[in-house]
Amino acid sequence: MTTLTLCFDAPMQSWGLRSRGVLRDTAMEPTKSGVVGLLAAAMGVERDDEAGIAELAALRLGIRVDREGLLERDYQTAQNVPTTLGTGHRTVVSERYYLADALFLVALEGPGALLGQLAGAVVAPRWPLCFGRRAFVPARPVLSGIHDGTLERTLREHPWLEHPGRAAPGNHQERLGLRTVIDCGVREAGAQPRHDVPLSFARTARRFATRAVRIGEVPLTEDMIITGEPSCS
Asked: How much is the pTM?
């Protein structure tokens, strides 16, 4: 097995699951549609290229939460919005949620040739990369590396992505484990549904399917804490 690892680090990230109308929510970790959307931008896959999107969505996804984000909410106001009847205008207030100061190790398991192409693409993307919204751009390089081994092994052994100051041994005594969210079979014990597998990103015909995930954790060991610059710095 081959696994590609990415670093999702930014002051703000947003991973919508049920965003509709004036309420824009966020999951507490990257969604599959969000990860596939970022990879599609890197590769130059068009929004309506269903075959290209399906190839990326077929990769097995695992997320390790190296720093839980803080859930924040913004209010945005739009003026002179036409009414549904077209007889006038109104002011619309929308609530938009996002994660502040979150840090994720994103792991993708699949064919080595495709993962190699993706590694090159995120370094030199066709279109700009963002974490859920165009204004939410990466704070450091996205690529972490390509590894031999399974997704689970990579999530257990990959160095913690924290910066040197926060990664000092004395600062993590209460962090016994790092939360993980991993693609799994629908019949596995503890499987939970997530309706976030993209079929099409076409603006007027967005479609999604459901996958199963398993939520767990991996121990934060001394071997995972590095004193130099973390990977993807």
From this structure: 0.88
